[in-house]
Amino acid sequence: MGNRKGGDTLPLHRKGGTGAPRGKPAEFRPFKRWFPWLVPLFVIANVALFVLTMYVNNCPQSESKVANVVGVTSSSRCVLQSELGRFSFQPIRENPLLGPSSSTLLKMGALAVSNVVSGGQSWRLLTCIWLHGGVVHIFANMLSLLLIGIRLEQEFGFVRIGMLYVLSGIGGSLLSALFMQGSISVGASGALFGLLGSMLSELLTNWTIYENKLSALSILVIIIVINLAVGILPHVDNSAHIGGFVSGFLLGFIILIRPQFAYINRKNAPPVYQAPKKRKFKTYQIILLLIALILLILGFAVGLVVLFSGANLSEKCSWCHYLSCIPTSRWSCSKSSSQTSCLSSQLGNQLNLTCEATNKTRTYYLQNENASAAVYQLCADLCS
């Protein structure tokens, strides 16, 4: 998208390389190029966890349990059951992304605010970024991770990119927990938006070593705006996107800072050439680093305090829900598709469920009065 005065491609093309056309001397490469292994490992870990989640989900067995509980003949609605067996997907109307049930995701570590705040399971802020809601979900995220992450790791190394990915993911989970308390949340989207945010701050903090600055900045901003705009569609947790983006943007100023080019040239100049002494970092880089560090620490601290105080920011901000979904004539921003909370009452073998999001009510006649394990699945079916 633009040229820098030295180094390699991020997706911003820069002068410099290890090779050169025949008959021409190799150009000087001021920054080390890393072999990318952590990002592919992240992809493998995410895919492996999705396979494990589908194994635990075991749709045919859960469908059979629900059928036995309500006393009907089991006729599985699992998608591709004959081909995939226990790895088959939940019914489309329950999970259109081709994946597991909400109860399985919750069991595997999905983000649920009540579990974090009341159950002391703060680890869900981290585990949820390694889980995905379906094949469509994980395919889109892992493709984006490979396209963005490998280039970043080649340029900045596995330590910095690993920190950036994990901390941005937690930042996305934290904002999601503050604004999306009526549903569970999974996915690496917050971490991926953190990588996008870091690319923008890296361009700004290392501004002096880029050529075609405005062109590079314009293209990057357009890409970011388009990706954030996708979040206003229904059933997309844009809170995680925004939280991850802001976290990555601030982290970029802190861990992706580069020495100014004049310092690199002097450091690598021949001993006989005495270039004027240059500082390693420019003043504006240090100022941006300090501001970003303060805002990042303050943001995480305040966010965690507010979360564990039990506050629901979506109730205190009348317009914030538009950041995640803008209603149009083509779709609704109703919570009905994601809400799986039901009011229940039981008298003998008669179970009455009411979905809190849709107010739909249904009565089930249970074969077993203690069949509480299947109630969540019945609630998910009622609310879907």
TrEMBL record:
Q: Where is the Peptidase S54 rhomboid domain?
A: 120-256
- Which UniProt keywords are given for this protein, alphabetically ordered? Hydrolase, Membrane, Protease, Serine protease, Transmembrane, Transmembrane helix
Q: Which region ranges are annotated with the description Disordered?
A: 1-24
Is Hydrolase set as a keyword in this record? yes
Q: Which reaction does it catalyse?
A: Cleaves type-1 transmembrane domains using a catalytic dyad composed of serine and histidine that are contributed by different transmembrane domains
Q: Which Pfam families match?
A: Rhomboid
Q: How does it sit in the membrane?
A: Multi-pass membrane protein
Q: Where in the cell is it found?
A: Membrane
**Does this UniProt record's set of keywords contain Membrane?**
yes
Enzyme Commission no: 3.4.21.105
- May I ask which residue range the UniProt record assigns to the signal sequence? none
Organism superkingdom: Eukaryota
Q: Where does this protein chiefly localize?
A: membrane
Assigned protein family: Belongs to the peptidase S54 family.
**In its UniProt entry, what is this protein called?**
RHOMBOID-like protein
Q: What is the lineage of its organism?
A: Eukaryota, Viridiplantae, Streptophyta, Embryophyta, Tracheophyta
